[in-house]
């Protein structure tokens, strides 16, 4: 049953189309990640979804309420739909506790107190509650911005790359913590990012956006095993073009290294990774370079190797 939906939403800036007939249906409490490269229309999409930008055409619905855009509504935006982006704005002279309670100004004081206490606990911010934003790390400040957005208990949370200022370890920890908080509250979530790994840490359900259009939607396994385009395939790993075969590619993990065979190359680079060595291999015919996994860590720079692969692992990718 659809709860939050975008219906044929398009947006053009002057002559440029940023979003083209974009449609989406989410059930209550569903999480979806949208992955797209820079300029693919992710921020435009979320601003329209939050009622903060006027679309050129199409509609946004939350339950049976049509979301009004800034041309239709005096004060743009909704408490039910909150957007968090990387450039959050905290009140610099207010403490963490005051920042979180600010959106609850008109609420019952007793409710406000309990809600802020609960958010401080959920996001692990109790010990910082009396600090000013400048006395916090980037990750802690981002948590305060998230708590501030959650204060009014939004039905829908839209996350626009809000973790991009954080280092990888901090980011993964925050995504994990946030996932628990949002699951518990039954919030419907759309997370946009250019990083597939971040997306898959929050949810297994991913939509790929390119040049304002939906390229593919599915769970990680379906997208990885049956990518529709080279861009989707490359989000998971590099892909190697098979010589003399049009649009045929093979992933580094699907290549086996042997001492005999037909496709000959030699190792020109080697990287130590957690579960395998990653090799760069220059093919003898044509000089093309393949990236190949060496799980046995057997081969060294300069070695001659023959490359094998199963036909069923070959990806045929046109776009
Ligand atoms: N105010 C504007 N005026 C004109 N063009 C714009 C405007 N805002 C965005 N665009 C264009 O619309 C397209 C989509 O932009 P948008 O910011 O939605 O993409 P994005 O996927 O969020 O990018 P990024 O990941 O870099 O933030 C881009 O080509 C951008 O140049």
TrEMBL record:
Pfam family of the protein (one)? ABC_tran
Residues of the ABC transporter domain:
4-236
The question of whether Nucleotide-binding is a record keyword is answered with yes
Q: Which GO terms describe its molecular function?
A: ATP binding
**UniProt entry keywords in alphabetical sequence:** ATP-binding, Nucleotide-binding, Transport
**What name does UniProt use for this protein?**
ATP-binding cassette domain-containing protein
To which species is this protein native? Algoriphagus jejuensis
């Amino acid at each position: 049953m659809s709860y939050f939906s975008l219906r044929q939403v398009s947006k053009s800036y002057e002559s440029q189309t940023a979003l083209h007939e974009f449609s989406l249906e989410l059930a209550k409490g569903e999480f979806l990640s949208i992955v797209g490269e820079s300029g693919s229309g992710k921020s435009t999409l979320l601003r329209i979804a939050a009622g903060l930008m006027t679309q050129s055409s199409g509609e946004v619905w939350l339950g049976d309420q049509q979301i009004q855009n800034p041309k239709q509504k005096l004060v743009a935006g909704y408490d039910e739909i909150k957007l968090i982006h990387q450039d959050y704005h905290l009140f610099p002279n207010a403490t963490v506790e005051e920042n979180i309670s600010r959106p609850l100004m008109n609420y019952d004081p007793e409710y406000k107190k309990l809600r802020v206490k609960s958010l401080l606990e959920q996001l692990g911010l109790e010990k910082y509650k009396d600090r000013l934003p400048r006395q916090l790390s980037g990750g802690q400040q981002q948590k305060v911005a998230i708590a501030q957005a959650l204060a009014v208990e939004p039905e829908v949370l839209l996350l626009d790359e809000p973790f991009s200022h954080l280092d990888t370890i901090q980011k993964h920890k925050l995504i994990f913590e946030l996932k628990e908080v949002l699951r518990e509250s039954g919030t419907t979530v759309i997370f946009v990012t250019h990083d597939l790994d971040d997306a898959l840490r929050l949810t297994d359900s991913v939509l790929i956006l390119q040049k304002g259009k939906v390229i593919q939607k599915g769970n990680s396994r379906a997208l990885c095993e049956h990518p529709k385009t080279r861009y989707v395939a490359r989000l998971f790993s590099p892909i190697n073009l098979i010589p003399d075969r049009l649009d045929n590619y093979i992933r580094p993990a699907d290549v086996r290294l042997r001492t005999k065979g037909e496709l000959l190359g030699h190792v020109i680079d080697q990287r130590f990774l957690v579960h395998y060595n990653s090799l760069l291999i220059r093919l003898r015919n044509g000089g093309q370079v393949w990236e190949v996994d060496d799980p046995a860590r057997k081969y060294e720079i300069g070695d001659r190797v023959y490359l094998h692969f199963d036909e069923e692992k070959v990806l045929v990718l046109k776009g």
